[in-house]
Design a protein that fits this description.
The radius of gyration is 15 Å and the shape is globular. Helix content is 29%, strand content 23%. It is an alpha/beta fold. It has one domain: Rossmann fold (3-Layer(aba) Sandwich), CATH 3.40.50.10420.
């Protein structure tokens, strides 16, 4: 394995950025179907998701579906070196935050984990690249790794999501990298 995380990040982002509008829309529909049909989604009353940015796998339809189903939906907000999740009632509540990413204002209910809450929570996370061993390369700041390290009970219902073009055979791994429980690429 010769490529560094940085080289993989650059290569996969280039491929992901080249996806057509039709490919992106189709993948968003597949994501919604796969997640809403997943037993963890069915058994959860809370969804920790992300608002897509740039060429990330689109989550708007899925978030709308979860809100319509009466699930509590929380999205991340970067606060210094860490990330916290805040409840939303609609995607229109989001504003450009860290690096221009849509984020909640941080003035609504924060998600407070713990083992009792984690059992009814599904965590979806983005990434740049994934492999068949559930390794994940993010954007290089370690926000999700730190969040999962601080909330270990959430690991049991964590799913990294992306496009099929983001799935590689093997990725380099560091000690601080935390694997999601599943990876779904559409």
């Amino acid at each position: 394995m010769g490529e560094t995380k940085s080289e993989i990040r650059s290569r996969i982002l280039s491929v992901r950025n080249a996806l057509t509008e039709e490919e992106r829309e189709y993948a968003a529909i597949l994501l919604r179907e796969k997640i809403t049909g997943h037993p963890w989604y069915f058994l959860s009353d809370t969804l920790l998701a992300y608002a897509d940015y740039g060429s990330e796998l689109r989550t708007g339809k899925l978030i709308w579906e979860a809100l319509s189903a009466g699930k509590r939906v929380f999205l991340p907000r970067v606060e210094g070196e860490n990330m916290a999740f805040y409840r939303i009632g609609d995607l229109s509540e989001l504003a450009r935050g860290y690096k221009g990413i849509p984020e909640p204002a941080g003035d609504t209910e924060p998600y407070s984990g713990g083992e009792d809450r984690a059992e009814g929570t599904l965590l979806l996370m983005p990434g740049v690249a994934f492999d068949r061993n559930r390794n994940r390369i993010g954007y290089g700041k370690g926000f999700y790794d730190r969040y999962l390290a601080e909330n270990p009970a959430l690991r049991q219902r964590s799913i990294a999501v992306g496009y099929r073009c983001q799935m590689l055979e093997e990725l380099p791994r560091e000690e601080t990298d935390i694997r999601p429980k599943q990876v779904i690429c559409v």
